[in-house]
Backbone:
């Protein structure tokens, strides 16, 4: 039985790697469809998950959030509201397009930290941010990275959901100092900001700082009724999510229905712009990952890497382990609850005296990878990108490469700033 379980884990892990490889090398093939087929194949051949269990891996909350939020902002795009938003942010950036991703980074930090958290912040900013990037000639990859990184930089605020989870887990192991959540928030925000700076240096088009982009939305026509209705809907979404802590997806669906009834989206043109290729891609891979977890593939992957750990690299190893595991599972819902309770035993075995460094390594490492389109944040940016299917596939591969590389970057930063070798 143990051998069968081990074989199932290896087989599921190989299936995931093959699907990701096929999706990268064959951009015209939707990797999500391949992932669903692979999930049923793995379940059938290994006997670890039956068809009903595989269907339960469908990420219904993510699906509804993607549909609702992309529909709302597709309406905003079709009736010209996003063009107005473009003009506003270009004016804030003084017409210099290179500043737009930086503005969105700080907006994401602020929105995430004041209460709604990283997922809500990304859901609010990704649709307009990705549209602005394409319209203003800014790298959509850079915009996606800075929105996701900014959202995660604010995620460990003591009043944000992820920060609350972190505090609760630490309290369960006897760490109740009220200043520790603030230290974790500051440290994780700092590490995330370093990666954001790296993205800006790598992907910014600095020529746009020297030559201001023409403000395409200097529109003489007054804002019309559908645009006012859409602006009111977007503001309502922000208020209901930020102030009343309502879920983004259901609120977006209600607002879309109201806009349709009031004629803000004539002929329901927004339905034609739903990014079904991205939705199939993201939900399909999520189904395969649920099979990976059930078959023990995730545990096998982490165990293989754990063998390389040493007493003087514990924070780097923790960041690497949690980063890799987080690429295939929920950062705050699975990885943190699995690793944070290990802190006392890690301290006993390694002689580490400060639990904050270990907590930061776990928290930062698990969330740096969330830029990947395999995570909710990256998925929101991919689905919000107003580009063709093939261009979206290219963006998916680039964002996947950046996101997965953050496991190594997170480990390196943990080694430098937490293990402190020098």
Residues:
């Amino acid at each position: 039985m143990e051998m069968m379980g081990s074989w199932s884990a290896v087989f599921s892990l190989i299936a995931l790697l093959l699907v990701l490889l096929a999706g990268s090398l064959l951009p015209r093939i939707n990797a999500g469809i391949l992932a669903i087929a692979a999930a049923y194949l793995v379940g059938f051949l290994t006997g670890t998950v039956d068809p009903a269990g595989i269907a339960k891996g469908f990420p219904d909350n993510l699906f509804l959030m993607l549909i609702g939020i992309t529909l709302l902002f597709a309406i905003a795009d079709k009736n010209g509201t996003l063009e107005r938003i473009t003009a506003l942010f270009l004016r804030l950036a003084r017409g210099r397009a290179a500043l737009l991703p930086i503005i969105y980074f700080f907006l994401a930090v602020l929105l995430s930290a004041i209460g709604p958290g990283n997922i809500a912040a990304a859901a609010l900013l990704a649709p307009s941010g990705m549209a602005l990037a394409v319209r203003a000639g800014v790298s959509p990859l850079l915009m996606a990275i800075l929105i996701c990184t900014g959202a995660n930089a604010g995620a460990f605020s003591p009043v944000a959901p992820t920060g609350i989870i972190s505090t609760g887990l630490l309290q369960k192991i006897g760490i109740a100092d009220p200043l520790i959540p603030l230290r974790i928030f500051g440290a994780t925000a700092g590490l995330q900001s370093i990666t954001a700076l790296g993205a800006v240096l790598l992907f910014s088009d600095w020529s746009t700082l020297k030559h201001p982009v023409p403000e395409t939305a200097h529109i003489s026509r007054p804002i019309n009724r559908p645009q006012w209705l859409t602006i009111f809907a977007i503001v309502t979404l922000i208020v209901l999510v930020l102030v009343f802590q309502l879920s983004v997806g259901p609120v977006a669906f209600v607002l879309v229905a109201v806009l349709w009834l009031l004629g803000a989206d004539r002929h329901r043109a927004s339905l034609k712009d739903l990014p079904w290729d991205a939705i199939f891609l993201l939900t399909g891979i999520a189904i395969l990952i649920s099979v990976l977890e059930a078959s023990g593939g995730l545990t096998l992957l982490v165990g293989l890497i754990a063998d390389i750990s040493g007493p003087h690299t514990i924070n780097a190893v923790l960041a690497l382990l949690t980063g890799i595991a987080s690429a295939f599972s929920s950062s705050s819902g699975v990885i943190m609850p699995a690793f944070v309770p290990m802190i006392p035993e890690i301290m006993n075995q390694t002689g580490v005296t400060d639990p904050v460094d270990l907590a930061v390594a776990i928290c930062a490492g698990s969330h740096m990878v969330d830029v990947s389109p395999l995570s909710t944040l990256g998925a929101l940016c991919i689905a919000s990108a107003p580009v063709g299917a093939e261009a979206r596939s290219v963006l998916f591969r680039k964002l996947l490469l950046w996101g997965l590389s953050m496991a190594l970057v997170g480990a390196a930063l943990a080694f430098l700033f937490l293990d402190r070798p020098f």
